[in-house]
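Researcher: Next sequence.
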Amino acid sequence: MPVTPSPSVPVPPSSSVVVVGSANADLLARTTVHPAPGETVLGRDLQVLPGGKGANQAVAAARLGARVAFVGAVGDDEFAEAATSGLREAGVELDRLAVVPGGTGVAVVTVAADGENSIVVVPGANGTVGAAAVGRHADLLGAAAVVVLQGEIPRDGVEAAARLAGGRVVVNLAPVIEVEPAVLRRADPLVVNEHEAHGALELLDGGGAGGLADEDVVARLRAAGVPSVVLTRGARGALVAGGEADPGGVAVHAPRVDAVDTTGAGDAFVGALAAELARGSGLVDAARLAVRVGAFAVRGSGAQPSYPWAGDDLP
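Model: Next structure:
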């Protein structure tokens, strides 16, 4: 189906982002508190929204004006439309999206009154985005200015995409999967939160990050061969190391906002970061925009519906 970008979003021809990743339908339930093991709590409402880390990041980049193509898969079931609706609305190119027999990926998301969430993901069609599927798009990956990868597709799909990428590779190791260390050493940047950084260090040098200061964590990742690192720190912003950043890391502070729902805020950050890098911005400047986009996202419900469009006022 042809996709017409929203007229409110400029699409500069110099901007080229390819996201290889997951597309899900998010079943979003709101409740006062998260249930304890064995406990039943009453929810306030249920929504079916577009999600998946890959799709979220693609939408975030496209809404900010990047030209974005998405490589992934959905099933031939009733959730496929929900999973792709946000991509279509944002003008993401979907010529490389496969429709496979079976179920679309689904995430069951519970959001408590404080805005924090818990998520269970059923991969569905995302499990078919392996090396063979990714290899069919070598031309696209080779020509992209920025290729964005995450951990919600099979590891061999992530590894194949990293090998085929001709430009800059942004790896968001979320969730942490046991990819080849070469994938992390191809990342420029590797984007991880404080928990994911621990997993990345185990993959690279066999040690964890327990008890280390954030600056020491990024220094160890860089010493293990990662060209640049963006360590996301939630409401505290991010720590950027590598590229033009100070070797000891540059702290990028996030604006203070009242959080309604943190679902997909990290993906909003990654998508914004990729869009800015594709435009030619430096890593620190890209991270400065990304923390503002992430702060914007937590003020609304769901993932993709809460992301800003180009021209929106950011905090």
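Model: Confidence is low (pLDDT under 50) at residues 1-15. Residues 31 and 156 are 37 Å apart (CA to CA).
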